[in-house]
Write a structure and sequence with these properties.
Blueprint lengths: L6 H13 L3 E3 H8 L3 H13 L4 E4 L2 E3 L14 H11 L4 E3 L1 H7 L10 E5 L4 E5 L2 E7 L8 E5 L5 E5 L1 H10 L1 H4 L4 H12 L3 H12 L2 H13 L4 H8 L9 E2 L9 E3 L4 E3 L2
Parallel strand pairs: 5-7, 10-12
Antiparallel strand pairs: 1-3, 2-3, 4-5, 6-7, 8-9, 11-12
Helix pairs in contact: 2-3, 6-8, 6-9, 9-10, 9-11, 10-11
Length: about 260
C-alpha cells in the first residue's frame, strides 16, 4: 500500500488510518511505536520533508488517509486551517482576498488563504498551503456563511455583506480600495437586501472611518434614509475629516454630514 516506505513510516500511516483521524501528535507516536522522543522527531521530520505528511506545528502533523500516486501529499486548505486554529482552542473565519474570490468580486486566485481568528497572527505554511492569519478580538468574529466540506470540516467564511464591509475596513491590508466601492455599488443593484445587510455588518464589525465612507457611499446610491440614520447615530461629533479614498491625495469637496473629503 505504501510502496517503498520503511517500516516505521508504514506503521505510522497505518496507525492514522486505523484511528480514522488525520491529526497525530508526537506523544501518540512515542506510545504506539515504542520510540524515543528523539526518534519520533526524526521520523516525523523525515516524513514531512518527503511530503508524506504535513507539519502543523512542532509535535502536531497531518497524515493522509492514503498516499496519492507519486507519494507526495498536502492537506486541503480547510483541513489545515481547522487543525491549526482548533488545536489552540480558537475560532476563525475565512476573509479578505479568499472571500473576494468566493463571492465573485475578483477572478484572480490569491496565493494565500486569509482568515480572521482570535488566537494567531502572521504567516503560516502547512504542506503546500500558505496562510495569512489576522488576530482579532472575539467581537470582530461573526456574520458568517457556513458550510461543511466533503471531509466533514465545518468552514466559516465572512458573509457576502461582511466581506464587502471588510474590503473598506481592512483596505490597507487587502489592497481593496477604491475597488470595493464599485463592488458595493454592483451589490446594491444585484440584491434588494444588500443595503440593509451591509449597514448591519458595518455597524457590528467596522470602525468610525469605515462607517463614514460607507454612509457617504450609501447616500450617493440613494439608499433609504432610515439606514443612513442608523449609521449616522454611531458617529461621534467631530470636525476632523478623512479622505473618501485613502489611496489618493486628500483634496476635494468636504462632505460635512459624513466628515469625508470626497476625493474620489
Amino acid at each position: 500500500m505504501f510502496g517503498i516506505l520503511g517500516t516505521l513510516e508504514t506503521q505510522l500511516l497505518a496507525f492514522s488510518q486505523m484511528r480514522g483521524s488525520p491529526a497525530v501528535r508526537s506523544e501518540e507516536i512515542i506510545e504506539v511505536l515504542g520510540l524515543t522522543a528523539a526518534q519520533t522527531r526524526e521520523l516525523l521530520s523525515r516524513m514531512a520533508r518527503r511530503g508524506l505528511i504535513a507539519r502543523v506545528r512542532r509535535g502536531l502533523y497531518l497524515v493522509p488517509p492514503r498516499l496519492p500516486p507519486g507519494g507526495k501529499w498536502t492537506p486541503s486548505e480547510f483541513l489545515a486551517m481547522d487543525t491549526l486554529i482548533k488545536d489552540r482552542g480558537g475560532s476563525y473565519q475565512v476573509c479578505g482576498p479568499t472571500a473576494f474570490l468566493r463571492y465573485g468580486f475578483v477572478e484572480q486566485v490569491p496565493n494565500r488563504v486569509y482568515a480572521y481568528n482570535n488566537i494567531l497572527s502572521g504567516k503560516r505554511n502547512i504542506g503546500s498551503v500558505s496562510f495569512t492569519l489576522i488576530k482579532v478580538d472575539d467581537s470582530r468574529l461573526g456574520d458568517t456563511d457556513n458550510f461543511t466540506t466533503p471531509e466533514g470540516i465545518k468552514v466559516a467564511y465572512s458573509s457576502r455583506a461582511r466581506t464587502l464591509v471588510d474590503a473598506v475596513y481592512d483596505w490597507s491590508r487587502f489592497g481593496s480600495l477604491p475597488r470595493a466601492f464599485d463592488w458595493i455599488r454592483a451589490e446594491l443593484k444585484r440584491d434588494p437586501r444588500a443595503a440593509k445587510l451591509i449597514t448591519s455588518a458595518a455597524i457590528g464589525f467596522s470602525n468610525i472611518s469605515t462607517l463614514r465612507r460607507l454612509g457617504k457611499l450609501l447616500e450617493l446610491e440613494g439608499v433609504d434614509e432610515s439606514l443612513l440614520l442608523k449609521i449616522e447615530r454611531k458617529l461621534p461629533k467631530t470636525s476632523a475629516e478623512i479622505p473618501w479614498c485613502p489611496t489618493r491625495a486628500k483634496r476635494g469637496t468636504i462632505d460635512r454630514r459624513w466628515g469625508v473629503v470626497f476625493n474620489g
